[in-house]
Amino acid sequence: MENLKLSALNLVPVRDGQDDADALSDMVSLAQHLDDLGYERYWIAEHHNAPNLVSSATALLIQHTLEHTDHIRVGSGGIMLPNHAPLVVAEQFGTMATLFPNRVDLGLGRAPGTDMMTASALRRDQHNGVYQFPEEIEELQTFFSPENEQAYVRAYPAAGKDIPLYVLGSSTDSAHLAARKGLPYVFAGHFAPQQMKDAIQIYKELFQPSDVLDKPYMIVCLNAIVAETDEQAQYLASTQAQVMISILRGKMQPVQPPTDDLRSVLTEREYELAQQRFRTSLIGSEDTVKEQLNAFMEHYGSFDELMVVSYIYDQDLQKESYSRLKHALNDEK
Length: 333
Prior knowledge:
Bact_Lucif_Oxidored, alpha/beta, LLM class flavin-dependent oxidoreductase, 15% strand, eight-stranded parallel barrel, 11 helices, Luciferase-like_sf, Luciferase-like_dom
């Protein structure tokens, strides 16, 4: 973990008792805290038709966050490319990169980030959008390249802007794509860890050097909750379990307070699913989380950057968790 970078992902959830404005205020406040801590980057997800997530207008939230922070890189985790014309994405991110040089990232996903009915309302071509993902990445690369300044269709002011592109994924398909294109790869282990080990290995073994990278750059995204004691972290993690089960139930409820009796709010099957997710999360004291991360790397292989999601109801304790995680990694160094 000597050179491991540390970053964060935010889906901009609404906590129980909050409204949308509160969630957006929390988003900025957390970004400022991570900026002060020296986190590498802060990414915002794209989700649609989700009453408990305020991350539908992702580019607007990225710009808003950039305006209220000083150093941290801010980007998308990710822009769901089937929902958007590459030209518009290039124009938006090229504009942000003009306003905030060397601080903008563009993570790209091929899922719609919503249910299929809403996806049909979003997509430019609801039948082919997902399958055109590789070609649309190339289209974006063209819009950002200096050579595009000579083309007839140009994404002003994107041409020539050095905006890093990242391939997001939760399967081995995305690993193949990122490796083939020689782009950095981000695996969504926080919600889909099933193919994580294979995807990391495939990306590393099949990586083809490009103008962007001469060797693989692997980011792994995990759930992380760090507290003073293991017991407190497990208690706080009951919120994460409720978030996950809410999604499985299709209820999409606001983030709930933690509970001492998780079994009372979940079925036995749901409780077991939550425990399975805990086993691929970083949950515990600083010492425990360091041990978990070392064990994770021994099993899944090393990577370059850890991106974490922390579903914690109390915002002050959420900030403390990010501080403790940073301290744990720094202490390791």
